Amino acid sequence: MKRYNWGIIGTGYIAQKMADALPLVLQSRLYAVASRSMDTANEFAAKHNCKAYGSYEELANDPDIDIVYIATPHNYHCENTLMCISKGKHVLCEKPFAVNGWEVRLMIDAAREKGVFLMEALWTRFNPRVVKAKDIIEWGQLGKIKLFTSNLGDQKPFDPTNRFFNKELIGGSLLDLGIYPLFMALLMLGKPKTINASAGIGSTGIDTNCSFTLGYEDDAMAVMHSSLVAATDGISTIFCEKGKIQFGPYVYAPEQVTIVHLNGEKEDITLPLTGNYYQYEAIEVIQCLEQGKTQSSMWSWDDSLMMIDVLDEIRKQIGLVYKGHDI
Ligand SMILES: NC(=O)c1ccc[n+]([C@@H]2O[C@H](COP(=O)([O-])OP(=O)(O)OC[C@H]3O[C@@H](n4cnc5c(N)ncnc54)[C@H](OP(=O)(O)O)[C@@H]3O)[C@@H](O)[C@H]2O)c1
Predict the structure, then answer these.
(1) Which of 76, 86, 122, 282 has the smallest CB count inside 10 Å?
(2) Can you give the C-alpha Rg of the chain in angstroms?
(3) What is the number of H-type helices and E-type strands within the chain?
(4) Which atom of ligand 1 is least distant from the CA of 252?
């Protein structure tokens, strides 16, 4: 049985989460972590019992590493991914896959050329309750989708240096939080016919509030908003002809997924959830590698491209330009 050594680039919030999740993934172990600072890498490595590197490149050069998980701010995703792919590593890269469609295409082309696995770390896609909800929609048990509504907002403490508000680190509610309602709309409804967006731009030049709607065949719509200045209720609902599916408390990690039939009868999707839910995407990586795949059919390169192209269009409409990452 093949065993896979994981490396993690970055040591922040999400890197810790993945390090906690990997022990739940068969055929996997956390082998090394890399930080820009050797001290930080050592601290992380001591906690998670793995090797430490004081630069991202050193980790990418380690021949014993099979898969690299990229856990840096959005603006580094493309550069970090390209470096790892150039060394023949498989890559699981945090969302958003990159800042714009041009960068995502570079990453996909590089993976295709090198024959390595590449996936955007959209953990929500692999949450068993979301997988089940997607099945129910596809089977048509509830009829066609007529409307999807979703929001994701958190009242973040204002700090212009933090990646949420810092424009150089690609701050903004859309790419950090809005991506989840958007993901759910695209997963359930597919590629939209129309896109309309507007935003509130804060003092650091990023979208603190963003609203966007997608239009589909037969007058179906998805209506969404994201915020870094308001803690919204986070409820998402797929309204169908014969009932609705409600996701809560947050669309990115829904624990309560409830089908409500037109007669008011409720049915909870109770598939068991374990761990911190980040293991599900890592399990998908291993399953794909075992099958010799370079992309997942659950969240494919085309799915990531569809999403980044919609994000680019929303940013064009709200006039949000990130220097060095122009659309
Ligand atoms: N899937 C999810 O649920 C989820 C949740 C949160 C975040 N994310 C995504 O994960 C990525 C990282 O988010 P995070 O919340 O983990 O961020 P974070 O806590 O700020 O950590 C980012 C890490 O990136 C490294 N880094 C490299 N260059 C940096 C720079 N110029 N400034 C700051 N950090 C830099 C740092 O590690 P070193 O100093 O050790 O090099 C830092 O610890 C983002 O793209 C975000 O969208 C996903």
Answers:
(1) 86
(2) 20
(3) 10, 14
(4) 3
Three-class SS state of 276: coil
Whether residue 96 is preceded by a cis peptide bond, meaning omega within 30 degrees of 0, is yes
How do beta strands 4-9 and 28-34 pair?
parallel
Q: Name the residue of 39, 72, 97, 107 to mutate for ligand 1: max ligand atoms within 8 A of Cβ.
A: 72
C-alpha pair distances (Å), 295 with each of 17, 47, 89, 120:
23, 31, 14, 10
**Which pLDDT band, with edges at 50, 70 and 90, does 276 fall under?**
very high
Give 118-169 as a 3 state SS string: EEEECHHHHCHHHHHHHHHHHHCCCCCEEEEEEEEECCCCCCCCCCCCCCCC
Choose among 242, 178, 166: nearest CA to 213.
178
- How many angstroms does the Cα of residue 169 sit away from the middle of ligand 1? 10
Token duo for residue 170: 């690609």
What are phi and psi for residue 47, nearest 5 degrees?
-70, -35
Backbone angles phi, psi at 100, to 5 degrees: -150, 175
**Centre of ligand 1 from the C-alpha of residue 14, in Å:** 7
Ligand 1 pocket, 36 CB below 6 A? Answer: yes
pTM of the model: 0.98
Kindly state if the Cβ of 149 falls inside 6 Å of ligand 1.
Answer: no
Residues 190-244 pLDDT 10s: 999 999 999 999 999 999 999 999 999 999 999 999 999 999 999 999 999 999 9
Cα–Cα distance between 60 and 78 in angstroms, integer?
A: 14
The answer to whether residues 129 and 254 touch, using CB atoms and an 8 Å cutoff, is yes
Amino acid at 84: C
The model's pLDDT over 99-132, given as tens digits with 9 standing for 90+, comes to 999 999 999 999 999 999 999 999 999 999 999 9
Distance, CA of 324 to CA of 311 (rounded, Å): 17
